[in-house]
Amino acid sequence: MKKKKLLHRIFVVPSFIVLFSLLAVFILFQIISDQYVKALTSDALKNEMDNIGSVTFFAESDDEDVEDTALIVPVMHLVIDAGGNLVSPTPPWYYDYEVKTASALAGIIADSPDAYKDSHHKLNVNDNFYLVQAGDYKGFIENGVFVPDNESKDSKDYYVLFYINITPMQKFIDRVNLVLMAALVLSGIGSIFFLFLTTRQANKDFEALKDYLISIGKKGRESLASPESNYSEIEAVITTVNEMSEMLAESENIQKRFFQNASHELKTPLMSIQGYAEGIKYHVIPKEEATDVILKESAKMADLINEILFLSKMEACEPEFEDVDISAIIAEVADNFRLMAKEKNINIICETKTASIVSADVKLIERLISNLLSNGIRYAKSEITLSCETSDKETIIKVSDDGDGIDKEDIPHIFERFYKGKGGKFGIGLSMASDIAKLHKGRLEVVSGENGTIFTLILPQISHTFSKNSLHF
Questions:
Q1: Of 66, 391, 392, 437, most Cβ neighbours within 10 A?
Q2: Which residue ranges does UniProt annotate as crossing the membrane (predicted)?
Q3: How far apart are CA 397 and CA 388, in angstroms?
Q4: 232-311 and 317-460 agree in CATH topology
Q5: What ranges do the domains of the chain cover?
Q6: CA quadruple 445, 448, 451, 456: dihedral, nearest 10
């Protein structure tokens, strides 16, 4: 299916809306002006038709809806007998144009006189506009004037045509129409031109953004300079792209460091294993000494591989949350590490007497606590303390040791993946612990000094959204 172009749609649709709106305004003005003229003249025509032959004033009328404006509209009439002859008014007339107008009107209505009886019509006569309406009357002509009379024996049937000269009003309306049309055309052209310029500029900005994205995507080539736009929306997209580009660059650097560190960490024990294996083969190194080193380095490689596998599974799967007593988990993990700590004469103190229920993935939380304990055993002198406190909204878990503390230059980087501080193992454990905390909508903080280091895990006491995907190890 062929996709529509957004910019074309942005230009075409508003353009049609502008044109149709202007056309609607013009048509609406025509309707309103026509209704105004009819309203202004219809009462005058009706009054003249009802009161022909007598002098009346609207002020004396019983019709309260009659407007004063009808009084200033002069109404004239022509009387035609059954033979089609003009009988009133009779010559001489004051002006020649009255004769021409009367003759022209008589000629127009001669073909279909009944068409003008029911409602008024607008006629163009000698470049003048007239509103006309006719009616049948009985009466007689007296001194050139028609006198309506239905009772007199001398009364005859006459056809009376009433007309109003609306040329001044029509010319005014035509002039307004011309001005309005010019204004509408100019505003329409201006609006469409503005839309065209806007969409063209937006199209240029999008093209520049597209080229910029392509240049970023081409590895091994320098990207174009960051484009600029006068539109805040496009500028926001450019800013987001720049941030994303920096994140991608950082991710690539992390991957490079990962491969470098992983290769180095695997290469060192492999070389040791290879060297001691050759020593056994050529009877240079005693078997007991060689096997101890081979087992130690193999265990080191296994630990690194397990860390990498756990990390990849954690990133590929979504955690499965459930309500658990984190105090019990802390106590269980602490028991698992007591033998390792005892071998180094380190005492583990677990201060978790009160149950603390949180929503968590058990395997991930166990790994987080295990990484903190393992790190503490590596640096502690004699004691590691685990505690768990609960507030209204948070659960606070602390793992502290009495070691020499972390170097100040290492503290900002200890949660970075593959960053190894002094005495570090692989540079994965603490970064993994921080990631697990974030997955639980929490955070992992560290405070370190000469008297030891305290890692603080803060978890919210809120329900998480359960996921169908889970971790399987």
A1: 437
A2: 6-29, 178-197
A3: 4
A4: no
A5: 10-173, 232-311, 317-460
A6: 0
Answer whether the bond into residue 92 is a cis peptide, omega within 30°.
yes
Among 205-219, 220-234, 295-309, 344-358, the least confident range: 220-234
Q: What is the pLDDT of residues 292-329, one digit of tens each?
A: 888 887 887 787 777 777 776 766 677 788 888 888 99
Is 3.40.50.2300 the CATH number for 232-311? Answer: no
Looking up tokens 């009133």, which residue turns up? 88
* Residue, of 53 and 432, whose pLDDT is higher: 432
Contacts of 3 (CB under 8 A, 6+ apart): none
Query: Does residue 61 register a pLDDT over 50?
Result: no
Average pLDDT, the chain: 78
How many DSSP H helices and E strands does the chain contain? 8, 13
Q: What percent of the chain has pLDDT over 70?
A: 82
- Report the candidate in 461, 459, 378, 460 with the shortest Cα–Cα distance to residue 424: 378
Rounded CA separation 57/54 (Å):
10
313 three-state secondary structure: helix
| Dihedral-angle region of residue 85 (phi above 0 means left; psi in -120 to 50 means alpha; beta otherwise) | beta
Among residues 92, 125, 130, 131, the alpha carbon closest in space to that of 108 is found at 125
Burial (CB count within 10 angstroms: exposed 0-12, middle 13-18, buried 19+), residue 434: buried
**Residue 60: pLDDT above 50?**
no
Asked if residue 104 lies in contact with residue 87, where contact means CB atoms within 8 angstroms, the answer is no
Q: Does residue 49 contact residue 133 with C-beta atoms inside 8 Å?
A: yes
Q: CATH topology for 317-460? A: Heat Shock Protein 90 (3.30.565)
Q: What distance lies between CA 232 and its chain's CA centroid?
A: 13
